[in-house]
Amino acid sequence: MKVLVVEDDEFLRQLVGRKLGDAGFDIKTAIDAQNAFNVLKDFKPDIILLDLILPGLDGFQILTKIKKDKSIADVPVIILSNLGQKEDVDKAMALGATDFLVKAYFTLDEIVKKIYNILDKK
């Protein structure tokens, strides 16, 4: 299964990527919107992990573009963010996010379980 991790924090990007790689996922990473859409030209993930606070376009804008692109609109998107206010969660879900995890409150094992749960339902 293929996963795209869009996260500008290098440490977290590597940590999540390593954990998912160890769990058997084919991982690609991106640090911003431009990088993410370049990756998506050649790599259709089964799921996307997306930070909201990124340089350039923010995660809400990226999510909107993903959901408007017929070739990838069906790909589930899990938001991983420090933003945990109800308004942020509601906005992300309204834009088409599949799930929303606040960085301070999840473990790497929980991310792996979430991915399996979401992909099992597809």
Structure commentary:
This protein has 122 residues and is an alpha/beta fold. It has a single domain, classed as Rossmann fold. The protein contains five helices and five strands. It has helices at 10-22, 33-42, 59-68, 86-94, 108-121; strands spanning 2-6, 26-30, 47-50, 77-81, 99-102. The protein has a five-stranded parallel beta sheet with strand order 2-1-3-4-5, sandwiched between helices. α3 (59-68) links the parallel β3 and β4 (77-81). The longest helix is centred in the last third of the chain and has 14 residues, at 108-121. It starts with a strand and ends with a helix. Residues 2-118 form the Response regulatory domain. This is Response regulator. It comes from Candidatus Falkowbacteria bacterium CG1_02_37_44.
CATH class: Alpha Beta
- The fold-level CATH name is Rossmann fold
Binned strand content = 15-25%
SS-based class: alpha/beta
**C-alpha Rg, in Å?**
13 Å
Distinctive features:
single chain; 122 residues; alpha/beta; Rossmann fold; 5-stranded parallel beta sheet; 5 strands; 46% helix; globular
Outline the secondary-structure elements.
Layout lengths: L1 E5 L3 H13 L3 E5 L2 H10 L4 E4 L8 H10 L8 E5 L4 H9 L4 E4 L5 H14 L1
GO biological process, one term: phosphorelay signal transduction system
Organism: Candidatus Falkowbacteria bacterium CG1_02_37_44
InterPro entries: Bact_response_regulator (IPR050595), CheY-like_superfamily (IPR011006), Sig_transdc_resp-reg_receiver (IPR001789)
